[in-house]
Amino acid sequence: MDRMDNFEQVIFGAEQNWTVILTATACGTGALMLFLKWFGHKQSWKKIQRAKARKETSLQRAELAVLQFNESHPETDTSLILSLSLADLSKQLKGGTLTPEAVFHSYVEKTLEVNRRLNCCTEVLLESWDQLEDIGSRKDGLLYGVPVSIKDNIGYKGHDSTCGVICKLDLPATGDSVLVEVLKRQGAIPFVKTNIPQSLLSYDCGNPIYGLTLNPHNPQKTPGGSSGGEGALIGGGGSVLGMGSDIGGSIRIPSSFCGICGFKPTANRLSSRGASSCSRGQKSVLSSFGPMARDVDGLALCMQALLCDHMFRLDPTVPPIPFNQQVYQCSKPLRIGYYENDGYAMPSPSMGRALRETKALLESAGHTLVPFSLPRLSYAMHELVLRGFSGDGCATMLSNLKGGPVDPSLRVQIISYGLPRTVKKILSILINPIFPRIGASMESLRGASSVQDLWRQHADVEDYMHEVMAEWRRCELDVLLCPMMGPAYNHNYPGKLTSALSYTIMYNLLNFPAGVVPVSTVTAEDEEELRHYKGNYGDLWDKLYRKAVTGGEGLPVAVQCVALPWQDELCLRFMREVERLFREKK
């Protein structure tokens, strides 16, 4: 018995020892994990502080440079310079009536003032002063002496392209992107980078690094996104020309919300080489780089300048198709398709009114308007757009958000992205009988189940493109007129309302060039009608939409112009016609 007791004591003691060891190990592992998490957050915080310091230093040095210039050039007529259209500004620069120095410092000064109100800039590019000194060698360029703002994700040597995420901080570009190189070759002076939403995959405009950007017409409203800093800066008068990118409306939405013109070309009409992204490799919904300006002629001049031999040499993957001035200048009557409600997201009262007014003006000018609708839109939104965009189950996007806080504007949007595929499936089954549109979207966020499934999805996208183009040819259309999202939303609503993107993201899916032209403003009657807005589905998204756009009286409202792939000049020509008719009406 004694030996047995001794044996039990030994065993019991061993168990206690192992328990102590395992407990200590577990505690140590937990403590280590907590330490690593704390250390990671501290490193992220340091990165953010360094980025903010760089921004503040650049703003202060720019302000000092402007002050010194103004003291030595009191004769500069800043108001006149800022009032000129891009075309007129370019003519006066080439003709010598204005100097590049006067124009540059006038716009830097205005940018600093606009940024103080709207927080639209991420960094002033101090190297632009060096470029200004040597600008005389580029006098033959189409954009000689024109200051240009660029979106944060467009690469500029020595500067971060953050996409609003911490993992891309402290990774300065080793060279200029192709777009920046060509802009410089054409005599333009990229002088400031502008703010974006975190990860670029939102049409709000805030991130944990640079903060929230405000709308130039109403600070309670978002400027849109993801090229929101560009929209705010140009809409606020701080830039005459900017470059953005568009993967779901990211040029067109901020242009609409801020009352300017914006153009999304056919994908790869302009080079994307050297630009940063949080969704690289995703091929179902295509991204495009394009210009944003105060008027359509400004967009066309920018496209003409960029579509040159220098870009085609730098990036041989871009088709060598120069800008077709003859198509842009043509004035023959057009056969125009149109729709007022796509059947997925009901337009706001001001959106619908803007489209009807535009249709009436086009008809009175001798153009033919033909009813048109995109086939199987609900299927396209869920099975092609959302499932394609979420092909990897949203893993790539979520991986870019690791290591730091998630911006409030994005939090609601990403909740469903991070759920396991099985949970998404169960939720879609439960939600579908009550809110079929939301249930179908949840199912689509599961993405592709295999590589084979993804290839099938890509084939379905191709088939759908040809289906739409067949309907287009059947109607014998030249171009298409459709509503444009607006007016500007209240802050933090875009992340809750991806459903409204049907008016813009479909043309990324189809790879059709599309642009927006401001044509009106929200009236008191629009606001009154909005009170009775029910939507197409009467679901949670429709109720949120009414709250998102309420309080918009006086805000800009735009329409969207669309053409077939590679007919970018025809799309711009249509936009110019819409712009002309509304100017004559005023």
TrEMBL record:
List the Pfam families hit by this protein, alphabetically: Amidase (PF01425)
Q: Which reaction does it catalyse?
A: N-docosanoyl-taurine + H2O = docosanoate + taurine; (11Z,14Z)-eicosadienamide + H2O = (11Z,14Z)-eicosadienoate + NH4(+); (9Z,12Z)-octadecadienamide + H2O = (9Z,12Z)-octadecadienoate + NH4(+); N-docosanoyl-ethanolamine + H2O = docosanoate + ethanolamine
Q: Which family does it belong to?
A: Belongs to the amidase family.
Name under which the protein is recorded: Fatty-acid amide hydrolase 1
Task: Print the keywords alphabetically.
Answer: Hydrolase, Lipid degradation, Lipid metabolism, Phosphoprotein
Gene that produces this protein:
LOC109902306
Q: What is the active site of this protein?
A: 151, 226, 250
Give the range the annotation lists for the signal sequence: none
EC code(s) of this entry: 3.5.1.99
Name the species this protein comes from. Oncorhynchus kisutch (Coho salmon)
Example of a GO biological process term? fatty acid catabolic process
